[in-house]
Design goal:
This protein is of the alpha+beta class. It has 7 helices and 18 strands. The strands form 3 sheets. Strands 1, 2, 3, 4, 5, 6, 7, 8, 9, 10, 11, 12 and 13 form a 13-stranded mixed beta sheet that branches. The protein has a 3-stranded mixed beta sheet with strand order 15-18-17, with helices on one face. Strands 14-16 form a two-stranded antiparallel ribbon.
């Protein structure tokens, strides 16, 4: 069988065993395979076999006529190395982002073995490649930190920066709400260029731009780690926002003052029980329809 016929049948995947062996004995077999691989990588969705055969044969003929210069393969290697280095540099300098959805919590271990528990609908960002130089995380939402001893550890939020010196603390940052509670060690909270030092049991709270005084915290960890949200003299709208995050629902208030203060708690694993916990103390009724809950005061 002629050489061109062998190549044509090979391109059509129509060689029998005897013809395949004859094809492999062709002088330019390796070049044909490499060119065909390249064509498969860049070919259009449909193509003409005869035309592709002409292109292959023309390329091989041209390759045989022109001497190969040592500089060309060297440039190819240099280009591949440059691309690989760029990809490596780009991927290793990217920030790591961990985000939770509604009704979801997760635990994160940082490069220095510090741990972070992330509450529902929260986002944590940090950079692994710069971690040895500076331990910095960015937080939107709520998280409980257990920080390993070492250099300074900073938590950045839109409302302020928390500087830590090997400790355990909780940060909650939502729209118009910023709270830091120290459970162990020492925490420095910088807000409006002023730093406040927090010792175990101390807290720093801002609601709607106003600093709110709080009693000493007696718990050793925040209640949400045990699937319960606890509130002490906080606006009802704060309670409702947390309920929405934990149960992925929309809550509508009718004839209810959202700024009235609420003291109590609700569980994260039983919606009916949780609804009773946040409605009965205020003599509020509720109704459910799909993903919407209506709270109403008669």
């Amino acid at each position: 069988m002629k050489r061109e016929e062998l190549i044509s049948k090979w391109l059509d995947n129509n060689l029998n065993n005897q013809e395949l062996e004859a094809f492999k004995r062709l002088e330019d077999y390796d070049d044909l395979v490499k060119l065909n691989t390249s064509l498969h990588a860049f070919k259009a969705d449909s193509y003409n076999t005869s035309k592709e055969l002409e292109n292959v044969l023309s390329t091989i003929k041209s390759k045989k006529q022109k001497p190969t210069h040592w500089i060309k393969p060297l440039l190819r290697v240099a280009a591949i190395l440059a691309i690989c280095f760029s990809l490596y540099f780009y991927t290793t300098t990217l920030d790591t982002t961990i985000a939770t959805e509604f009704a979801q919590k997760t635990n994160v271990v940082l490069p220095d073995d510090s741990s972070v528990s992330l509450n529902a609908k929260s986002t944590l960002e940090f950079n692994k490649s710069d971690w040895k130089k500076e331990r910095i995380v960015t937080l939107e939402g709520e998280a409980f930190f257990k920080v390993a001893k070492g250099s300074s550890f900073n938590v950045i939020t839109k409302s302020g920066t928390i500087m830590v010196y090997g400790t355990q603390f909780n940060v909650k940052h939502w729209d118009n709400y910023f709270e830091v509670i120290c459970y162990e060690g020492l925490v420095g909270v910088t807000h409006n260029s002023q730093e406040i030092k927090l010792k175990p049991g101390d807290s720093f709270l801002i609601i709607d731009g106003e600093i709110i005084a709080k009693e000493k915290e007696n718990r050793s960890t925040p209640s949400w780690l045990n699937n319960e949200s606890t509130f002490k003299s906080l606006p009802y709208k704060i309670v409702i926002a947390e309920f929405e995050r934990q149960y992925n629902v929309d809550v509508t208030l009718l004839n209810i003052n959202s700024t009235q203060l609420f003291t109590g708690s609700f569980t994260h694993d039983n919606m009916d029980v949780a609804l009773k916990s946040i409605t009965l103390p205020l003599h509020v009724t509720y109704s459910k329809s799909n993903n919407t809950i209506i709270l109403k005061r008669e």
